[in-house]
Structure formats: C-alpha cells, structure tokens
Amino acid sequence: MRNMSDIIEQYLKELLAASDGEVVEIKRAFIAEKFDCVPSQLNYVIKTRFTNEHGYMVESKRGGGGYIRITKVETHSKSEYLAHLKNLIGPALSQQNAQHIVQSMFENDVITLKEGKIINAALDRESLMIELPFRDQLRAKILLSIIDVILYTEE
Amino acid sequence: MRNMSDIIEQYLKELLAASDGEVVEIKRAFIAEKFDCVPSQLNYVIKTRFTNEHGYMVESKRGGGGYIRITKVETHSKSEYLAHLKNLIGPALSQQNAQHIVQSMFENDVITLKEGKIINAALDRESLMIELPFRDQLRAKILLSIIDVILYTEE
DNA sequence: TATACTTTAGTCAAAGAAGGTCAAAAGAGG
DNA sequence: CCTCTTTTGACCTTCTTTGACTAAAGTATA
Fold first, then answer.
1. Same domain, yes or no, for A8 and A62?
2. CB atoms within 10 A of CB A126
3. pLDDT at site A1
4. Distance of C1' in D24 from CA in B68, Å
5. Phi-psi bin for B67: left (phi > 0), alpha (psi -120 to 50), beta?
6. Does the structure show a pLDDT above 70 at A155?
7. Any idea where the CtsR N-terminal HTH domain is (chains A, B) (predicted)?
8. Per-residue confidence at B20, pLDDT binned at 50, 70, 90?
C-alpha cells in the first residue's frame, strides 16, 4: 500500500472487523507510536476516511484515560431520502418549511411522533429568540445536525 | 475502565444500586485509601459526575464521624422530575450541563437514546453558531421547550 | 464553659495526560 | 508546472491527578 494514511486506515478497519460490535477504541499516541508517525496523523486519517458519510461515528475524550472510539454504523435505507432533505434545507429555513420537513419525516417513518414534536420545539421561533435572517440560518443548522443524527443512529 | 475517576464513579454507582433507598454514605478517606488515591479525588469525582444535573444530591459532614452522602434524586413522577430539571436550567445553560441533563433524562427513562441524540444535536455549540453568552441563553430556551414537549406528550 | 486538639471534609490551583486544530512543507499525479 | 493529498509540528483545549491549605465538627481539658 502506498502511504501511511492508507496503512493506518487499513489497520483500523481490520481492528473493526475483528471486533464483534463493529467498534474500536484506540489511544491516539499509541497508534502513532506503532506506525512511527505524529499523533495528528490519526486525526487526518479519521477526518478523511472515517467520516459520517463513510458510515462511521467517531467519539473521543481528552485527558487522562483519553481515547478515540470509532464505530461502524450501517446507514439505513432511509439515507437517500434524508440526503434529499438535507439538500432541500440549504443555508436557511423558515419555520413553515421546517414543519413540513418534520411532518414528512414522520410520514416516512424516519421519526416518531414524539421525536417530531421534540424537533419542532427545538426549531420553533419562540425558542430561537434571535432576529431574522439569522434565525432561519440557525434553524437550518440545527435541523441539518439532527438529520445527521437520525442518519447515523441505529434504531 | 480507563482512569481512577471513572472507576470510582462506577464503584459509587454500584453501591447506590445495591442500596435499597438509592442512598449511599461513604467515608472520603476510606474510599481514597481503598483506591489508593488522594482524598480530594473523591471531591473531583462527585463534582464532575454526581451533580444535580446528573440527578444526584450530595450532603456531607466534617469532623469525627464525618461522611459524604450521595442520594439519587427520586424521580417521583415524570412531571415532578421534569419540573425539577426546568428549575436547574434557568436563563442560561452550558453545553456540558445540557449533556448532563440529557443523560439524566435518558437514565430516568424519560427519553430514548435516539431522542437524546437528537436533543444533543440541537443543543450542540456547532449547531448554535452564535456568540456567548447568547448561545447559552438560546440553549436554555430550546431545552426548556423540549422538556415541555416531553412533559405533554403521551408515549 | 471556653479553649485547645483531633478528625474529617472542602477548595483551589498547578502539574500531568490525553486528544484537537491548523497551516506550512513535502510528495504524488497529471 | 499545477493541483491535490499527505506529512509534520507548533500550539490549543479538555479532563484528571495531586497536594498544600482551609474549614468545620467532635472531643478532651482547664
């Protein structure tokens, strides 16, 4: 294989395959040591090869006992639909349109009624007490990250 | 488990689970001895993992026969518990405290894992791209309306 | 009872231990 | 050459551990 990043990618994927639950937890410094590279190279590998879009979820903790945890998530069949919704949203989103989208997600069985209500509450102009046009931008941001969560959360 | 603080947290939670009334009373120095750490580490563990936001109450006494008593806050009824959380939130809310509250709601079966992730996404500082201190105020507002929704939504 | 001593627990800040970010330098391919 | 990807390292942020100092409560004593 050509370069260090590819080798590390391969290695991490092997670890994932070996682990039963499709989850692997590493010490950044330890892996860096093992492959004789700088620790931040791990961040590069993760950022370019283990993103949400690639079907992985990454969590980490700093400080004593810190770690990086990579989880493979099988993105369910709704992914095209949700990607489509993300496209619709763009940089700003009115409350009305937001409600339409939430309604659509509910009807398409991507969220439950309660989840829909929670999302609507988070996107309500009462909660988002800032001026237009920032409010609509903020609403878009929030809904986009919520959709990402839905995309990469197994039921 | 990774570090001393996590181990002690785990230990205390086991004690709590074992105790009938969800109350546990410890001798700080004794626990420190048991885990071979300095006594003040117990204070750190308590301050970071057994706060009100986490759903615990802590009392203590110094001097001879001193103790630290940790009580898991009784979630009498769902509505009382949620009212209690709303009290904790106040006019502004850090991301950390927000996560503690979401964690507590999950542990108290008020929300599901997915709902928790959705809420966290909505409250994340990445989504809430405005400056402090407004961001913390906004986060408080959003979580308050979400809690209201949970309060008034039948499962 | 007032005072001194002992036994606990609390506070706080410094040091230590991870991981994160970002941009410059280096390399690879077209 | 030009562009895109990879490598590197300086600097940053977060979380944990440690210990010196402080505060409070009980106990013995004048």
1. yes
2. 11
3. 55
4. 14
5. beta
6. no
7. 3-74
8. confident
Q: Domain boundary at A41, A72, A103, which?
A: A72
Of A121, A129, A146, the CB nearest to B138: A129
- The Cα–Cα gap between A77 and B74 comes to 41
The count of other CB atoms within 10 Å of the CB of residue B103 is 15
**CA–C1' gap, B50 and C4, in angstroms:** 37
What confidence category does residue B2 fall into, taking pLDDT thresholds of 50, 70 and 90?
confident
The identity of residue A56, as a single letter, is: Y
Distance, CA of A146 to CA of A135 (rounded, Å): 16
| Distance from the A81 Cα atom to the nearest Cα atom in chain B, whole angstroms | 18
Closest CA to B41 of B83, B88, B3: B3
The string of pLDDT tens digits covering residues A81-109 is: 998 999 899 889 999 999 999 999 999 99
Same domain, yes or no: B31 and B66: yes
Q: Are B46 and B95 in contact (CB under 8 A)?
A: no
What pLDDT, on a 0 to 100 scale, did the predictor assign at position A74? 80
Percent of chain B with pLDDT over 90: 85
Q: How far is A138 from chain B (nearest CA, A)?
A: 7
DSSP bridge partners of A70: A24, A58
Peptide bond into A133 cis (omega under 30): yes
Which structural domain, as residue segments, surrounds residue B88? 78-151
Q: Quick one: pLDDT band at residue B1, thresholds 50, 70, 90? A: low
Residue A35 host element (H or E): none
**How many residues are present in chain A?**
155
Which residues does chain A have within 8 Å of residue B119's beta carbon, measured at their own beta carbons?
118, 122
The CATH number of the domain holding residue A140 is 1.10.1200.150
